[in-house]
Amino acid sequence: MKNIRAICLYCGSSSSVPEGHREAARRFGRIVAEAGASLVYGGGRVGLMGLAADAALAAGGHVIGIIPRLLMDAEAGHGGVSELHVVETMHERKYKMFTLSDAFVALPGGLGTLDETFEMITWRQLRLHDKPIVIVNEADYWAPLLKLFGAMEHNGYTQPAHRALFSVVGGVDAVLPALEREPEPTLDPATKWL
Ligand code: AMP
Asked: What pLDDT is stored for residue 126 in this prediction?
């Protein structure tokens, strides 16, 4: 895949979620491994995060987990990943996930998933980076969010040009083709501002 060596996955840490979402996470882990890219993620065994990591590992992939010491118990730090980075703060976690990755993918998730995904979108809006971001609208899970994006634009809080900050696909099989369509990043990430 063109210049995409590592893909960061943001997704839910809950396990009590629809089986279709769980299967999408497993499938995405396999897809990344089979494409020969590393999977960068939050480093836990819980929820969709753990399913994606386990599937990538089972397919022979390279998995990099980044977990804050604080969450080693709550999110069950994954001892079986290729690299587990235990960091001190939540900010350090997000920053490391950002610097190690060439693209960002959001599967269904909760508040943490939204926080992480929006940080990448807003940093891109500020031109602090131009790495691609893909939102996977699995089973229409993100429809209310997509509606909110429409309301933001309708009310003048965002501009039509902001639509290019991320792409939306209907399922995990469409992620790599979407990444192939994205322009090559040209910005040197402005990490001194982060
Ligand atoms: P959730 O979507 O709420 O299940 O959370 C998904 C992941 O986001 C979990 O690994 C959370 O620990 C993580 N997360 C939540 N808030 C933050 C934050 N402020 N910085 C970094 N990671 C976070």
From this structure: 95
